[in-house]
């Protein structure tokens, strides 16, 4: 095994990592450990916020807790804008990825070592910023491993997605076990250790990544750096003032993030579409991305309720008794990654086998959000059953449907973002896809406040129906969307 990175022409023939370029293994590894820490911490955080102080929690109302989790999740993906901008203007994707991993580890250490609201505030801010920087740039780095005509791209992103879900599987198992047996801060400490392992692994392999991953596509002049530094400090000052004056509060964080993301989305599309650095074909492709963006928002608004409504549902409504042993509700979050691990290879093989005959991206998106809507409708037969009455096997089946929907949209969305991206905005188009995740995640936190265990039918039926309508709408618009995408399928 050599330690040099193949040239682009050679990388098309490099099949040492499950048929993919060997350099994929390095990004696969750091993303796996980052997801271990991210998902392991996030599900524990839900319970930490609303469990009573006698149980080791902070005793918040459930509605406030889910709002914070939704806002935090939305902030993670909103921070991809900052990470993408720093990559495109200052450091390049690979360096931002590396430094972001360090910030994430510091955030988890803050949660583990600092008690109470101070630890939550410091920890979540650092993890959100670091995860935002890592996510957009890890995806962008994966995109540099493939030539424009390499048919393995979608399969490669599916395998990359497998790494994400290996981490997502083990994270809640480890932290859930530690939470129930030793306490919340031991669980947060495990997340910090996981991120440290990922950072060490990536440090040894990062030099083997393509030189293109370290290129700064649109370098910022020295004078411009000072200007943006001033803007950044002013933004921080404004946020501090809004918090101190009570404009931003824990119970309205989701709404604040929703408004912020909508504004950022409009501004981002406007900047890219009005740029003189893109040609007419690239501009048309960006327009073609808009209906995909809207569909993605609808999908994530439902899917991300795995971290808002589903934890409460698992703790209060799910029968977790297995032959006399009470399974930690945290472990429900590991069901989805199991299905991802099993099915991601299946989907990768299907797309590879079909090649140019596979469904187009708009078709995959439309089917994905329709199936997500069906998953919500599957909660209806168990509505009104009372505490601990929903069988665990039913939740497993519902999450299986979640997973099928996810595999039709999420890895495909990452891939199409790199294919539709103008040359001058490569990483930032990936950030735009993550903005759709950010908006959907924040909306999921806002929607969760309307979930009522005593009257579940309206909640699940209305949201499921809306998702199905959105998916059908995209399927009906496939031809004009493909025309805008100018040859990208």
From TrEMBL:
<keyword id="KW-0812">Transmembrane</keyword>
<dbReference type="GO" id="GO:0005886">
    <property type="term" value="C:plasma membrane"/>
</dbReference>
<dbReference type="InterPro" id="IPR018456">
    <property type="entry name" value="PTR2_symporter_CS"/>
</dbReference>
<feature type="transmembrane region" description="Helical">
    <location>
        <begin position="159"/>
        <end position="178"/>
    </location>
</feature>
<feature type="transmembrane region" description="Helical">
    <location>
        <begin position="363"/>
        <end position="383"/>
    </location>
</feature>
<comment type="similarity">
    <text>Belongs to the major facilitator superfamily. Proton-dependent oligopeptide transporter (POT/PTR) (TC 2.A.17) family.</text>
</comment>
<feature type="transmembrane region" description="Helical">
    <location>
        <begin position="286"/>
        <end position="303"/>
    </location>
</feature>
<feature type="transmembrane region" description="Helical">
    <location>
        <begin position="430"/>
        <end position="451"/>
    </location>
</feature>
<feature type="transmembrane region" description="Helical">
    <location>
        <begin position="254"/>
        <end position="274"/>
    </location>
</feature>
<dbReference type="InterPro" id="IPR000109">
    <property type="entry name" value="POT_fam"/>
</dbReference>
<dbReference type="InterPro" id="IPR005279">
    <property type="entry name" value="Dipep/tripep_permease"/>
</dbReference>
<protein>
    <submittedName>
        <fullName>POT family proton-dependent oligopeptide transporter</fullName>
    </submittedName>
</protein>
<feature type="transmembrane region" description="Helical">
    <location>
        <begin position="184"/>
        <end position="205"/>
    </location>
</feature>
<feature type="domain" description="Major facilitator superfamily (MFS) profile">
    <location>
        <begin position="26"/>
        <end position="482"/>
    </location>
</feature>
<keyword id="KW-1003">Cell membrane</keyword>
<dbReference type="GO" id="GO:0006857">
    <property type="term" value="P:oligopeptide transport"/>
</dbReference>
<keyword id="KW-0472">Membrane</keyword>
<feature type="transmembrane region" description="Helical">
    <location>
        <begin position="389"/>
        <end position="409"/>
    </location>
</feature>
<dbReference type="InterPro" id="IPR050171">
    <property type="entry name" value="MFS_Transporters"/>
</dbReference>
<dbReference type="InterPro" id="IPR020846">
    <property type="entry name" value="MFS_dom"/>
</dbReference>
<dbReference type="InterPro" id="IPR036259">
    <property type="entry name" value="MFS_trans_sf"/>
</dbReference>
<feature type="transmembrane region" description="Helical">
    <location>
        <begin position="457"/>
        <end position="478"/>
    </location>
</feature>
<feature type="transmembrane region" description="Helical">
    <location>
        <begin position="226"/>
        <end position="248"/>
    </location>
</feature>
<feature type="transmembrane region" description="Helical">
    <location>
        <begin position="96"/>
        <end position="118"/>
    </location>
</feature>
<keyword id="KW-0813">Transport</keyword>
<feature type="transmembrane region" description="Helical">
    <location>
        <begin position="65"/>
        <end position="87"/>
    </location>
</feature>
<feature type="transmembrane region" description="Helical">
    <location>
        <begin position="36"/>
        <end position="53"/>
    </location>
</feature>
<keyword id="KW-1133">Transmembrane helix</keyword>
<dbReference type="GO" id="GO:1904680">
    <property type="term" value="F:peptide transmembrane transporter activity"/>
</dbReference>
<dbReference type="Pfam" id="PF00854">
    <property type="entry name" value="PTR2"/>
</dbReference>
<feature type="transmembrane region" description="Helical">
    <location>
        <begin position="331"/>
        <end position="351"/>
    </location>
</feature>
<feature type="transmembrane region" description="Helical">
    <location>
        <begin position="124"/>
        <end position="147"/>
    </location>
</feature>
């Amino acid at each position: 095994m050599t330690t040099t990175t193949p040239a682009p022409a050679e990388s098309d023939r490099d099949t040492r990592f499950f048929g993919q370029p060997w350099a994929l293994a390095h990004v696969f590894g750091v993303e796996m450990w980052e997801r271990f820490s991210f998902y392991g911490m996030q599900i524990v955080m839900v319970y930490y916020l609303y469990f009573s102080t006698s149980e080791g929690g902070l005793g918040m109302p459930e509605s406030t807790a889910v709002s914070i989790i939704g806002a935090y999740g939305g902030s993670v993906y909103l921070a991809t804008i900052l990470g993408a901008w720093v990559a495109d203007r200052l450091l390049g994707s690979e360096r931002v990825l590396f430094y972001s991993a360090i910030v994430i580890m510091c955030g988890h250490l803050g949660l583990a070592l600092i008690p109470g609201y101070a630890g939550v505030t410091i920890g979540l801010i650092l993890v959100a910023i670091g995860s935002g920087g890592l996510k957009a740039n890890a995806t962008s780095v994966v995109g540099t491993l493939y030539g424009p005509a390499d048919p393995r791209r979608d399969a490669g992103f599916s395998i990359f997605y497998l790494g994400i879900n290996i981490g997502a599987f083990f994270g809640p198992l480890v932290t859930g076990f530690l939470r129930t047996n030793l306490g919340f801060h031991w669980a947060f400490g495990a997340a910090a250790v996981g991120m440290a392992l990922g950072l060490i692994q990536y440090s040894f392999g990062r030099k083997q990544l393509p030189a293109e991953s370290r290129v700064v596509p649109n370098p910022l002049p020295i004078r411009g750096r000072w200007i943006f530094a001033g803007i950044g400090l002013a933004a921080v000052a404004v946020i501090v003032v809004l918090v101190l004056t009570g404009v931003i509060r824990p119970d309205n964080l989701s709404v604040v993030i929703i408004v912020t993301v909508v504004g950022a989305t409009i501004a981002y599309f406007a900047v890219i579409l009005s740029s003189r650095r893109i040609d007419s074909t690239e501009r048309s492709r960006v327009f073609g991305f808009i209906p995909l963006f809207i569909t993605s928002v609808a999908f994530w608004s439902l899917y991300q309720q795995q971290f808002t409504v589903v934890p409460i549902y698992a703790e209060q409504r799910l029968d977790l008794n297995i032959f006399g042993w009470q399974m930690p509700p945290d472990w429900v979050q590991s069901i989805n990654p199991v299905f991802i691990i099993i099915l991601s290879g299946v989907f990768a093989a299907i797309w590879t086998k079909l090649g140019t005959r596979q469904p187009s991206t708009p078709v995959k998106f439309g089917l994905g959000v329709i199936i997500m809507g069906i998953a919500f409708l599957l909660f209806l037969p168990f509505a009104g059953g009372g505490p601990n009455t929903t069988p665990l096997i039913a939740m497993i089946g519902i999450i299986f449907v979640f997973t099928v929907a996810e595999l039709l949209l999420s890895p495909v969305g990452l891939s199409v973002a790199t294919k539709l991206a103008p040359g001058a905005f490569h990483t930032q188009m990936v950030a735009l896809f993550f903005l759709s995740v950010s908006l959907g995640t924040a909306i999921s936190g806002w929607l969760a406040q309307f979930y009522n265990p005593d009257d579940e039918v309206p909640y699940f039926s209305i949201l499921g129906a809306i998702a199905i309508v959105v998916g059908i709408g995209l399927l009906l618009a496939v031809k004009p969307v493909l025309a805008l995408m100018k040859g990208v399928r």
